[in-house]
Amino acid sequence: MIGFTDQELDELTLVEGALALNAAIDPATSMHWVRAELERLAKDAEHLLAGEANDELRLEGLLRLFYKEWGFKGDFEQYFSSENAFVDKVLERRKGIPVSLGAIFLFFADRLDLPVEPVGFPTQLVLKVDWFHREPQYINPFDGEFLSERVLRGWLVGKEGPTARLEEEHLEVSDNPTLIGRWLAVIKSALLREENYAMALRCSELALTFSPDDPYEIRDRGYIFQQLKCDWVAAEDYEYFIAQCPDDPAAELLKLQVKVLTAEAPIFH
């Protein structure tokens, strides 16, 4: 399993970091094709928009090009599909979720020298347009529409409850390691839903390169091992979680799982 350091991720664009992540999860990822397609589209955008008089017109043009002419859009019908989280699949299908669409859009915005940066808002990735001469604007990468603070506040209330307040920290620019970590969790969740346990295990192992002792990630890895019929390995991960988080409600249930998984001694041939 390939590991990544925070410094290595920060030296890449977000989409390049995601592509490396994708290839670590799925070795069949065509990195060459993705890079060639991104470069082709970037050159198209530069040809069409680089001559615009100012940043506002270039941004307006890129939004039109990305969502209208190229046809990128949020996948409303299969939002939780893993295809929406892999960069190569998003480029092929022109469908994705906020984090994948946003990362690709940021690649083109950077090529056009537009002041667009990623914000890891609690509910999803948001794009922040940090204008020099006026207040920032926020874009929903799922559909390319501008977001008001009222809408953002509504999203926050929907996630955290009626007392939630929109704070400045919610709208701060996020670094690549933070965003990649959240993206990895999305991919793992999608793969588990699809019962693709082999790839989900790669996600879990990769996540543990960021946080090697995370008991919750080790618990999740134990679940994956259990689905792969690696019962004793699963039991070891569960036991680690129980020892680290004895007061967690899941600990008592996992103790029962450990008894079942270790009921028969392994047979070595």
Short description:
This is Protein SirB1 N-terminal domain-containing protein. With 269 residues, the chain is of the alpha+beta class.
Q: Could you explain how this protein is built, in words?
A:
Residues 33-184 form the Protein SirB1 N-terminal domain. The chain is of the alpha+beta class. It is 58% helix and 8% strand. It folds into two domains: 6-171, C8orf32 fold, CATH 3.10.620; 213-261, no CATH class. The chain has helices spanning 6-10, 14-25, 31-49, 55-69, 87-93, 98-111, 149-160, 176-193, 197-210, 215-227, 231-244, 249-261, and strands spanning 73-74, 95-96, 116-120, 125-129, 137-140, 145-147. The strands form two sheets. The chain has a four-stranded antiparallel β-sheet with strand order 3-4-5-6. A two-stranded parallel ribbon has the order 1-2. Strand 3 and strand 4 (125-129) form a beta hairpin. Helix 2 runs parallel beside helix 8, helix 3 crosses helix 6 (98-111) and helix 9 (197-210) runs antiparallel to helix 10. It is globular.
**What is the number of independent domains?**
2
Distance between the termini: 28 Å
The largest pleated sheet is described as: 4 strands, antiparallel
CATH class of the largest domain: Alpha Beta
- Overall structural class, as computed from helix and strand content, comes to alpha+beta
- Side-by-side strand order of the widest sheet: 3-4-5-6
By CATH, the topology of the largest domain is C8orf32 fold
Residue share in β-strands:
5-15%
Instruction: Name the shape in a single word.
Output: globular
Order of helices and strands: HHHHEHEHEEEEHHHHHH
The CATH architecture of the largest domain can be given as Roll
Give the low-pLDDT segments.
Answer: none
Pfam family, one: Transglut_core2
Protein name: Protein SirB1 N-terminal domain-containing protein
Family: Belongs to the UPF0162 family.
InterPro entries: SirB1_N, TPR-like_helical_dom_sf
